[in-house]
Specification:
Elements (H helix, E strand, L loop, with lengths): L14 E6 L7 H16 L3 E6 L5 H12 L5 H8 L1 H16 L4 E4 L1 H4 L1 E3 L8 E4 L2 H8 L3 E5 L2 E3 L5 E3 L4 H13 L3 E6 L20 E3 H9 L7 H10 L3 E5 L7 E4 L10 E17 L5 H13 L3 E8 L3 E8 L3 H11 L8 E14 L5 H14 L6 E4 L3 E7 L3 H11 L6
Parallel strand pairs: 1-2, 1-9, 2-6, 3-6, 9-11, 10-12
Antiparallel strand pairs: 4-5, 7-8, 11-12, 13-15, 13-16, 14-15, 16-18, 17-18
Helix pairs in contact: 1-4, 7-9, 8-9, 10-11, 12-13
């Protein structure tokens, strides 16, 4: 790859699992460029397993096709449909490598024997059989594997959810005891925040698994949260690199040695949220239990729940705007049996999360956050804390202003 053009003797014969995302294989030209780089590393003695996503936009196109037939189509058939996107990119990459005199073979998740449970659309990997992959590597053949997919105990095609190719790569790295799992994207590593919001954002040379997991879960798009959790569980070295430029990228570390414990090291952002509020005049937890149980069945994820109790019980929570109408329908149904009082909602909100490298000094961080945002006239709608993060909800129109101010206030531009 770009940062492996000059390989030391110690690097040769190592095994790397390399995953390339949709933008990295978004055109024939991009596939040809990557094939040249993969071939060069192969000739230099690097053993590689390549994992590919579908070409940029292909999965969305396939989902839209299915939606034209049935917006609520059978989950098994949708997995069969959308899994074909990765088959296109792996076949093209194998052909591009073969054209360069490198032996390569494209493989679906079924052919690799990536075994999952039967939760279509959001399957979990249970085990990976490596005999075939190891035989290919022993024969100097590069396996080019379809990410995002596997097979259930009945032989049905399953998919791992959006971003699941990252998880495929980590699972293969674990099963093969790879020296490193490398995730190639369109950015050159993990940044302190989104560089599109804050030009002074800095690339982190390393970040702990715990911190990276929180960053990914709270909105950072560079890695899928499941892949980070999987890598941490099995202590697989994980590195984020750019497929468009050279560099060392960001290493996701097992320990906290690369940060001063307790310091804020990143700001994650989740856009397009709505806040729903209602009063439970009965002051009972039963309505909450019924509501969130039903939302869970529907796959609706809620966050930043706030409950206050005076003469009545007031409840507020956030949800993706895409789910707002469904949530309001559920509340309307619940109001037929429970005295909810008035229901209010607000759109165009965003969640900003400050993530630390260890236990966060919540009081000090909260004081600084409210001071910074207060001077800008930005009102915080909701706030939530955990051991290593502080998350707050504000109007989306203040997003860039707030991120830039907090980024500088916590010295992230100086990391």
């Amino acid at each position: 790859m770009p940062n492996q053009e000059k390989l030391s003797p110690a690097q040769t014969h190592k095994l790397y699992v390399k995953k390339f995302g949709g933008t990295s294989v978004g055109s024939i030209e991009r596939i040809e460029v990557l094939a040249e780089q993969i071939a060069a590393a192969h000739r230099a003695g690097i053993r590689q397993v390549i994992v590919l996503s579908a070409m940029a936009g292909e999965t969305n196109r396939l989902i839209a096709l299915g939606g034209q037939i049935d917006p609520h189509g059978n989950a098994r058939e949708m997995d069969m449909l959308i899994s074909t996107g990765e088959q296109i990119s792996i076949a093209l990459m194998a052909m591009a490598l073969q054209k360069r005199g490198v032996k390569a073979v494209s493989l679906t998740g079924d052919q690799v024997q990536i075994h999952t449970n039967s939760q279509f659309g959001r399957a979990s990997i249970e085990r990976v059989d490596t005999d075939y992959l190891e035989s290919l590597l022993a024969s100097d053949i590069i396996p080019v594997v379809a990410g995002f997919q596997g097979r259930n105990p009945h032989g049905d095609v399953t998919t791992l959810g959006r971003g699941g190719s990252d998880t495929t790569a980590v699972a293969l790295a674990v099963a093969l005891s790879a020296d490193e799992c490398q995730i190639y994207t369109d950015v050159c590593g993990v940044f302190t925040t989104d560089p599109n919001l804050e030009p002074a954002a800095r690339r982190l040379s390393c970040i702990s698994f715990t911190t990276m997991y929180e960053m990914a879960r709270l909105g950072a798009k560079v890695l899928h949260p499941d892949s980070v959790a999987y890598a941490e569980r099995f202590k697989v070295p994980l590195r984020v690199l750019s497929s468009f430029e050279s560099g060392e990228g960001t290493l996701i570390c097992v320990d906290e040695a690369c940060h001063i414990s307790g310091n804020v090291v990143g700001i994650a952002v989740s856009r397009d949220l709505a806040m729903v509020s209602f009063e439970d005049a009965d002051k009972s937890t039963e309505p909450l239990g019924k509501l969130f149980q039903q939302l869970s069945v529907l796959g609706v994820e809620t966050d930043l729940l706030s409950k206050t109790q005076t003469d009545s019980s007031s409840v507020s929570f956030t949800v993706s705007e895409a789910w707002l109408e469904q949530v309001l329908l559920e509340l309307d149904g619940l109001s037929q049996t429970v005295n909810l009082g008035s229901v209010f909602y607000e759109r165009d909100l965003v969640r900003i999360s400050l993530v630390a490298s260890g236990s966060l000094a919540k009081t000090d961080v909260a004081a600084k956050v409210f001071d910074v945002l207060g001077k800008l006239g930005i009102h915080v709608k909701l706030i939530s804390t955990s051991e290593i993060k502080l998350a707050l909800v504000i109007p989306q129109k203040y997003l860039q202003m707030a991120v830039c101010a907090l980024h500088h206030a916590f010295g992230l531009n100086e990391l």
